[in-house]
Design goal:
23% of the residues lie in helices and 33% in strands. The chain has helices spanning 59-75, 84-92; strands spanning 7-9, 12-17, 22-27, 30-39, 42-49, 78-81. Strands 1-2-3-4-5-6 form a six-stranded mixed sheet.
Length: 112
């Protein structure tokens, strides 16, 4: 569903911009992004940015949802939550923790 193909998530369209290594959505000419780096069997989520006009609409969570869906369905990669927002997101979505590994790419994170 991703990898350069657009997918509707509520009123926003989130796409995987493979060339820029980010998930992105646009609203009134501004971009919200979740930057990532692909490793050997991993998808490291490194930075989330949501412009002030996007904030409070759940856009960051939708970007992270898209990244986890991509990691699970498209590539079967484990996720490394380097971004502090992603770490916070995981406290509200414990069902995703099984997909997460620490930054050494080998060990699962402890249960939350």
């Amino acid at each position: 569903f991703l990898c350069g193909v657009m997918s509707a998530v509520e009123e926003f369209i989130i796409r995987n911009d493979v060339d820029r290594s980010c998930f992105v959505t646009e609203f009134h000419g501004e971009e919200a992004v979740l930057d990532y780096q692909c490793g050997d069997g991993t998808l490291e989520l490194v930075r989330t940015f949501v412009p002030p006009s996007f904030r409070g609409k759940g856009i960051a969570a939708k970007l992270v949802d898209a990244a986890f869906q991509y990691a699970q369905q498209e590539t079967e990669r484990k996720v490394i939550p380097t971004c502090s927002y992603v770490a916070t997101y995981l406290t509200h979505h414990p069902e995703k923790v099984s997909m997460v590994v620490s930054s050494d790419n080998r060990s699962p994170l402890p249960k939350m």
